[in-house]
Amino acid sequence: MNKFGSFNIKIALLLSGVLIAFIILIYTQIVVDRIKNREAQIANLYAKSLEYIANDESADAEYSFIFNEIVTQINFPIIATDKDYKTITFIQNVNYDTTESLTKEDTLRFFDLVKEMDEINPPIKVAYQDSIILNYVHYGQSTLVTELKLLPYIEFVIGGIFVILGYIGFSYIKKNEQSNIWVGLSRETAHQLGTPLSSLMGWLEMLKSSKPGTEEYDETVYEIENDIDKLNKITGRFSKIGSQPKLTFENVAEVIQSVSQYFEKRIPNLITKEGRVTKKVRVEVNCPENIKVKINKDLFEWVIENLLKNALDAIDKSTGLIVFNISEKEKEVFIDVSDNGKGIDKKSRKDVFRPGYSTKLRGWGLGLSLSKRIIEDYHKGKLLLIESVLEQGTTFRIKLNKT
């Protein structure tokens, strides 16, 4: 992942946290406004009821109804005062024992509370015949509204913690992945160089025992040239990673065939002390037509080598078979790479392309990850694991666009 992509993910993570907190904030505010409106309606109903009683002398029977049915439903602090703000006439949901008489200190405290309530909600007047003010009803906010008002701040704190933990977690994963990539890349370099170098040492020994001018000598020199050419290709491959490689139309069957032929003479055979071969691997390339596709030959060969090596490592039978089936459909070319190895269990299939993942004890898990990047980033194609059956084999698919 490049720095630009990493920066985008961090920004997206931050914006997601802010957006979630903002949506919850708006929703909470809507709920608070609805509850406040409901409380205002209840306070207004109480005031209108008092006004109704004051204006209708025959409403004594309604008085008990108001206090039994309306006042008991009030769950927010409410204080009624006279018109001159000198006497407290009613108290509900305020920290006070209503069975005791008001002291001077209590009265002063309640009038301070009245001022605070009036700053939150305008007082409601109770008038006689719409002209003579009898009382004022002052009301505050219920505990629920107060808690809901604090909720957005709590949400912002939780959202901030979420973003921070997400950022730390993402940074840790990214750092760990980069570490795996660097270690894997260094080992992949050694592995890439190891095949032609070990092969060169073998050919050199054969060259020492061969006579110039013989067929054996000429064949050995030819294979040495192949290995030297291979070393040059390896150098070129690593120089292409990180830059945009040039793509040209190539016959994919010929490219795959050349890679498989190179490996045929270098595929390891397991031989017993008696000299009996216990493992022999055969590579087949099936292509019904002359199919050409736009690729970077050096990088594409690298992918084929990685898939070949992966298949070779998976084969634990005495007779191994690796098959490349090449086909085309409309504007796409499909290359299926199948082996008859031990397969991949279901829980591991999602991790096969993850850098650092390997089922081998001494593996470093970069081959498939690197191959996927080469195919998808540089060739705009797809590298997929399409099938794997335990003890029967695995099939990977390369999908490329013809244009």
Low-confidence stretches: none
* Helical percentage: 40-55%
CATH class of the largest domain: Alpha Beta
Structural class: alpha+beta
Q: What is the chains' assembly state?
A: single chain
Radius of gyration: 41 Å
CATH homologous superfamily (4th level) name of the largest domain: Histidine kinase-like ATPase, C-terminal domain
- State the CATH architecture of the largest domain: 2-Layer Sandwich
**Overall pLDDT confidence:** 77
The total strand number stands at 12
In CATH terms, what is the fold-level topology of the largest domain? Heat Shock Protein 90
Beta-strand content estimate = 15-25%
How widely separated are the two ends?
Answer: 26 Å
Identify the strand order in the major beta sheet. Answer: 6-7-9-10-12-11
Shape type: rod-shaped
H-E order: HHEEHEEHHEHEEEHEEHHEE
Number of helices: 9
Largest sheet: 6 strands, mixed
